[in-house]
Q: What sequence folds into this?
C-alpha cells in the first residue's frame, strides 16, 4: 500500500501522474476495509461466543464433570445440600419432546401454507399472504409464551380435564406455531425455486394441478423442504422464553403430553442469574450452553448443506 | 424422402382447402389470439394434414410459438391470454365447453424449445404420461419395462441409456434430453406431435440426430414443427406454413415453397431478407 513518497515530492510537476491518489481512491479503500470487517465480524463473534461459553464451563468439564452423570442422569439438582447432581437427561427429554411435538404441528401447517402460496395463488393475494407470514415470524417469543400461559393453559385444563395446562402439549403447540412461519417462508422459497418449465412440461403431458405438485414440484423441492424442517427443529431447540413460560418448568421425563417438563434453554435462563459466578452450578449451566450450541450448530449446518445442495443441482 | 406434392396453392388466399382433402389433423378457423391488449394471431385458417410433417416458419416474433401453444391450450397458463375462433384436432373442437383439457393434452404431445425432462429418473420420465393417463386398475408394473424399452428404442436412445434408466434425466446431454422428451410422449399414443424449434438448443450433430428421429416418426404421427432453420424446414418437412406478423401468408408443399413461392413475402423471407 505505501507508495513512494520521495518520488511524489520530486515529481510534483510531472504530468504523467500515474501514482496520483484522489479522494475516490481512499473512499474505495476505506469501504473495502469496512466491508471486510463486517464480513468477518460474524465469524469473529461466533468464535468469540463459543470460546467464552466453553471457557466459563471449562472448570466444570475439567473438575466435577462426570460424562455419564451429565448425559444420563435424570436428576438435575444443582443446589442440593447433600450432593449436587448435574444430570441433563430430563432436560434433554423435555426439549426433545416439546420440539418433536412442535414439528408435528408445524410441518403440516407450514408445508400446506407453502404449497398454497407457491402453487395456488398469484399476484396480489400471494404478496399479501407472504407479508402476513413474515409478520407472524416477527412476533416476539415472549408474546407466544404469554399466549401459552393465559390462553392455552386454561383451554387445555378445560378440554382435557387435566390439573395443569402448562405441559408438553401446550409448549409443543406454541412452539409449532412459532416455528411454522419461518418454515413456511423457506419451504415456499424451495417450491418457487423449482423451474416453471417442469410444471409446464408436466401440464403439457396432461397432468392435473395436484399431479404436477406431488409428482413434480414436491420431489424436485424435497431438499429445500427438508432444510426448512431442520431449521424449524433448530429453532425449537434454541427457543427459550416461550418454552420457559409454557412447559410448566418442572423436571420430568415425560410419559404423556400432559406432563410438565423443563427445557435445556429454560434452565439456563431461569438459573443463571442466581448462581455465583465461577461456582460449579454456574459452570454446569455453561456446559449446557456448549451442549446446546453444538447441537443447534450441527442441525443448522445440516440444514444449510441440504439447502445448498439443491441450489447446486 | 417421400413427399406428397399434391397440394395446390391458391394465390391470394390465407388458407388452402385442398381439393383432394386428405384427412386433417389440425384445423383452425378464424383463430385470433391476444396477450392482453396485444394481438399475436390474426384470422389464422389452416388445415394441417394427418400423417405428415408440416413445418412452421417465419421471422422471430411472428407468432409461431403462440400458434403452436394454442393447439394444446398450454397458452392458457399465461395470464391475460384471450382466444377467438376454433381449433379442431382430429375433427374435434378442443375449445368446446365439454372438452376435457387433460384428454386434449394426452392426444397432443408437445416438445419444447429447451429440452425439459423432469428432474426424476429417465425411466420415470418415459412413464410419466403413461402413469397419469392409465387408470389405476389397469396400471401394471409388469408392462412398464416393455413400454420404456419400446419408447426409448423408437427415439434411438435405448442402447445409450439402457444401463442408466434410474439415473436422473437432467444429467443427460441436451441431445439425449430432447430425444427423451420425445420418447415420453409416445407411450400414451398421441395423434399429434407439436414441436417448437426442437433442435435450436442442440449442436449440429445433435440437430442431425433429432431431425432424423423426427423423420422416423413421420407417418405414425401428424407432426407440426416450428423452425427457424430454413435448411431444416426444407430437408425435413412435407408441407410448409409461412407466417408473418401473426398472419399465415402461405401454406403449401415444401418443395414448392422453396422453389416457386406464391407470395413475394415468402420469397423475401426464404432468400433471407427478413433475417
Ligand atoms: N406471454 C406473452 N405476453 C405478451 N406478449 C407475448 C407473450 N408471448 C409472446 N408474446 C408476443 O407475441 C408475439 C409472437 O410471439 P411468439 O413467441 O409466438 O413468436 P415466435 O414466432 O415463436 O418467435 P421466435 O421465433 O422468436 O420464437 C411476439 O410479438 C411476442 O412479443
Ligand atoms: Mg418461438
A:
Amino acid at each position: 500500500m505505501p507508495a513512494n513518497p520521495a518520488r511524489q515530492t520530486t515529481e510534483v510537476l510531472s504530468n504523467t501522474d500515474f501514482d496520483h491518489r484522489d479522494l475516490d481512491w481512499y473512499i474505495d479503500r476505506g469501504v473495502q476495509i469496512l466491508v471486510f470487517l463486517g464480513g468477518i465480524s460474524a465469524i469473529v463473534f461466533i468464535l468469540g461466543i463459543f470460546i467464552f461459553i466453553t471457557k466459563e464451563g471449562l472448570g466444570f468439564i475439567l473438575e466435577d464433570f462426570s460424562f455419564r452423570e451429565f448425559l444420563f442422569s435424570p436428576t438435575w439438582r444443582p443446589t442440593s445440600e447433600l450432593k449436587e447432581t448435574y444430570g441433563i437427561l430430563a432436560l434433554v427429554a423435555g426439549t426433545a419432546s416439546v420440539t418433536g411435538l412442535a414439528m408435528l404441528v408445524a410441518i403440516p401447517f407450514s408445508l400446506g401454507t407453502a404449497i398454497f402460496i407457491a402453487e395456488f395463488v398469484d399476484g396480489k393475494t400471494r404478496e399479501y399472504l407472504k407479508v402476513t407470514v413474515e409478520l407472524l415470524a416477527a412476533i416476539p417469543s415472549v408474546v407466544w409464551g404469554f399466549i401459552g400461559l393465559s390462553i392455552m393453559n386454561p383451554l387445555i385444563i378445560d378440554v382435557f380435564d387435566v390439573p395443569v395446562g402448562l405441559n408438553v402439549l401446550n409448549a409443543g403447540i406454541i412452539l409449532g406455531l412459532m416455528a411454522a412461519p419461518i418454515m413456511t417462508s423457506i419451504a415456499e422459497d424451495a417450491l418457487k425455486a423449482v423451474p416453471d418449465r417442469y410444471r409446464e412440461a408436466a401440464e403439457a403431458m396432461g397432468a392435473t394441478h395436484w399431479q404436477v405438485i406431488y409428482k413434480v414440484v414436491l420431489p424436485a423441492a424435497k431438499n429445500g423442504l427438508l432444510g426448512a424442517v431442520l431449521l424449524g427443529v433448530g429453532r425449537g431447540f434454541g427457543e427459550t422464553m416461550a418454552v420457559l413460560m409454557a412447559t410448566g418448568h418442572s423436571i420430568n421425563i415425560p410419559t404423556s403430553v400432559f406432563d410438565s417438563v423443563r427445557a435445556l434453554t429454560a434452565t439456563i435462563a431461569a438459573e443463571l442469574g442466581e448462581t455465583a459466578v465461577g461456582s460449579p452450578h454456574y459452570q454446569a449451566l455453561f456446559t449446557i450452553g456448549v451442549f446446546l450450541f453444538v447441537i443447534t450448530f450441527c442441525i443448522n449446518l445440516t440444514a444449510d448443506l441440504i439447502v445448498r445442495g439443491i441450489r447446486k443441482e | 424422402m417421400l413427399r406428397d406434392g399434391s397440394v395446390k396453392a391458391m394465390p391470394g388466399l390465407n388458407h388452402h382447402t385442398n381439393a383432394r382433402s386428405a384427412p386433417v389433423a389440425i384445423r383452425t378457423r378464424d383463430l385470433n389470439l391476444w396477450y392482453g391488449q396485444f394481438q399475436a394471431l390474426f384470422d389464422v385458417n389452416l388445415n394441417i394434414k394427418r400423417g405428415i410433417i408440416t413445418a412452421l416458419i417465419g421471422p422471430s416474433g411472428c407468432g409461431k410459438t403462440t400458434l403452436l401453444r394454442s393447439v394444446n391450450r398450454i397458452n392458457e397458463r399465461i395470464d391475460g391470454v384471450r382466444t377467438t375462433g376454433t381449433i379442431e384436432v382430429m375433427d374435434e373442437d378442443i375449445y368446446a365447453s365439454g372438452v376435457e383439457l387433460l384428454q386434449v393434452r394426452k392426444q397432443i404431445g408437445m416438445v419444447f424449445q429447451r429440452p425439459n425432462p423432469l428432474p426424476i429418473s429417465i425411466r420415470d420420465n418415459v412413464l410419466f404420461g403413461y402413469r397419469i393417463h392409465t387408470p389405476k386398475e389397469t396400471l401394471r408394473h409388469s408392462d412398464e419395462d416393455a413400454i420404456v424399452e419400446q419408447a426409448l428404442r423408437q427415439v434411438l436412445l435405448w442402447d445409450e441409456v439402457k444401463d442408466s434408466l434410474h439415473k436422473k434425466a437432467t444429467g443427460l446431454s441436451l441431445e439425449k434430453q430432447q430425444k427423451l422428451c420425445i420418447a415420453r410422449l409416445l407411450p400414451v399414443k398421441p395423434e399429434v406431435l407439436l414441436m417448437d424449434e426442437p433442435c435450436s438448443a442442440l449442436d449440429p450433430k445433435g440437430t442431425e440426430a433429432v431431425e432424423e428421429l423426427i423423420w422416423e416418426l413421420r407417418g405414425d404421427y401428424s407432426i407440426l414443427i416450428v423452425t427457424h432453420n430454413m435448411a431444416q424446414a426444407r430437408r425435413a418437412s412435407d408441407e410448409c406454413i409461412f407466417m408473418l406478423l401473426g398472419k399465415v401468408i402461405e401454406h403449401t408443399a415444401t418443395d414448392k415453397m422453396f422453389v416457386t413461392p406464391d407470395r413475394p413475402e415468402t420469397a423475401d423471407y426464404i432468400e433471407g431478407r427478413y433475417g
Notes: Chain B has one domain: 4-270. Residues 1-20 of chain B have pLDDT under 50 and may be disordered.
